[in-house]
Amino acid sequence: MRKLLTILILMLIAGATSLAAEPDSQTAPFRKSFSLEIGTGITPQQTQLPGLGETEFYENGQSAKYIWTPAFDISAAWLVTHRIEMVLSVEIAQRRYQVTQHPEFGTDPHGNPRYDFSQPGTDLGTKGLKPVESLYCQGRFFWMDPQSAFCFYSGIGIGVSTNFRSTIPVAGLTPVAFRISGAHFYFFAEATISPLGTFGHGGFGWRF
Q1: Smallest Cα–Cα separation from 132: which of 37, 18, 16, 53?
Q2: In 42-131, where do the E strands start and end?
Q3: What is the C-alpha to C-alpha distance for residues 107 and 160, in angstroms, rounded to an integer?
Q4: How far is CA 150 from the centre of its chain?
Q5: Which residue, 140, 102, 96, 97, is CA-closest to 121?
Q6: Using CA atoms, how far apart are residues 206 and 201, in angstroms rounded to an integer?
Q7: Domains of the chain, start order
């Protein structure tokens, strides 16, 4: 995760420096903008891929009930043409469970303990699996002026996620999204399947 955050911080510095070096003018073809976004979404699908360790609960005589936990992300966005915005995001998501320990009732032929899952167990509280981290690059196409008070956009992108023991490529598609803007701050909501959300993603942005 430190490497992903370092990459994003460097991109933020580069974007801010680039905008500072090119002041706005009447002859500019469009008004460039740089934004910082904080978002959350429905836990991304890649957190449910094999290899996440749920079987460890069963092997230790435990049952686990999934507790929905939202994803969290921070993004840097650059408006590079009139209608196209490039976005770099770092995201973290985690699966959490309410865990119950069931009693033993002997051993199997190999000497391993057997557990009676039909009997009430002891509540062990909540346990979180190792977080899944993602680095995601997205292109957004705005169907109207992106700096207007209200606008729609679509997006497509690709990234990588750490699936505990490996790094996997992850594609993303945002068929429709909208943004409601003020002078510097805006709210956005997206219907998306990406490292940022399985079905929905949204948050707030600061444009300067």
Answers
A1: 53
A2: 62-67, 71-79, 84-93, 96-101, 104-107, 113-115, 122-128
A3: 43
A4: 24
A5: 102
A6: 17
A7: 2-15+32-207 (2.40.160.20)
Cβ-based burial of 97 (10 A; exposed 0-12, middle 13-18, buried ≥19): buried
Rounded to the nearest angstrom, the gap between the alpha carbon of residue 27 and the centroid of all alpha carbons in its chain is 38
Question: pLDDT tens, position by position, for the chain (208 residues)?
Answer: 555 555 555 555 555 445 444 544 444 556 788 999 999 998 888 777 655 566 778 888 888 888 878 889 999 999 999 999 999 999 998 888 889 899 888 888 888 888 888 888 888 888 877 788 899 999 999 999 988 999 999 999 999 988 666 788 989 999 999 999 998 999 999 999 999 999 999 999 999 8
Whole-model pTM? 0.74
